[in-house]
Amino acid sequence: FTFDYLTKEKQLHNLIWVWSTARVADPAWYPGDDVVDIGGCDTYLAPASGNDMQPWAESVAALRSALRSLK
Q: In sequence order, what DSSP letters do the residues of 27-70 get, joined into one string?
């Protein structure tokens, strides 16, 4: 809906499209390089053990690896 509304109805063509995932980075949800300009991963991680970002970092690393294999 958003893409068609902005590009076809509003005639906007100078847009940057961002794809972002949260917590679990699942490459199955990646729409493709042809429709993504910037990719990212957000987290609202609040682990019980404090500020341990290791699970998030591992998730981002797995996503990067999976996306590289799609090319």
A: GGG---GGG-SEEEEE-----TTSS--HHHHHHHHHHHHHHHHT
- Rounded Cα gap, residues 33 and 14, in angstroms: 17
Global confidence as pTM: 0.58
Q: How many residues does the chain have?
A: 71
Q: Which residue has the tokens 């300009």?
A: 37
What Cα–Cα distance (Å) separates residue 53 from each residue in 18, 24, 46? Answer: 23, 13, 9
Grouped pLDDT means (10 residues each) for the chain, 71 residues: 92 91 72 83 63 74 76 58
Distance of CA 55 to the CA centre of its chain: 17
Q: Which amino acid is at 35?
A: V
